[in-house]
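INFO batch 0412 | record 1 of 1 | parsing
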Amino acid sequence: MQMHFIFSDNVTLLFDFWTVQTLAGLVLSFVIVLLLTVLYELSKVWKSNLLARVIQTLPVTPDSVLCPPLISDTESNLPASSDTLLTPDPLFPEDPPVPSVQFSSSTCRWWLLHSFLALLHTVQVFLGYTLMLCVMTYNAAIFIAVILGSALGYYMAFPFLAKYPKPHSL
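INFO prediction complete | emitting tokens
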């Protein structure tokens, strides 16, 4: 296998059955790789917007299962002194209060969005590695398809970045 870019219509992409030996096959492979790259760029923007929605729907109530209070009510009422009579006995610890599990619609929505975000991330990683392997064939036409697809995908997806305010930075 060559270790430099070549312009050739004879290339095997990803699998043995995706062997290109004609100019028409190379053009078709060029278009397929270009579309995969556009899809990859769109998935990055979609993931960013979905992440903003997940953050916006994150339950912020202290009664929520997702964000339990950091200190219990009994600890917050204790005075801040070094008196050992006021501190709980370590031999007889009190049972910690069991938080009540409440599944509100916002919590279920958060889990649904989070699950979809994990699935989208998996698809994005798959597409990224697939495109990397396409570039590693060292075929210049396929490399150009990835570069053009990335530029075209970003150009198409950029207006969607402003759809949701971003409380985070990626």
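INFO post-check: Strands lie at 11-12, 19-20.
INFO record closed
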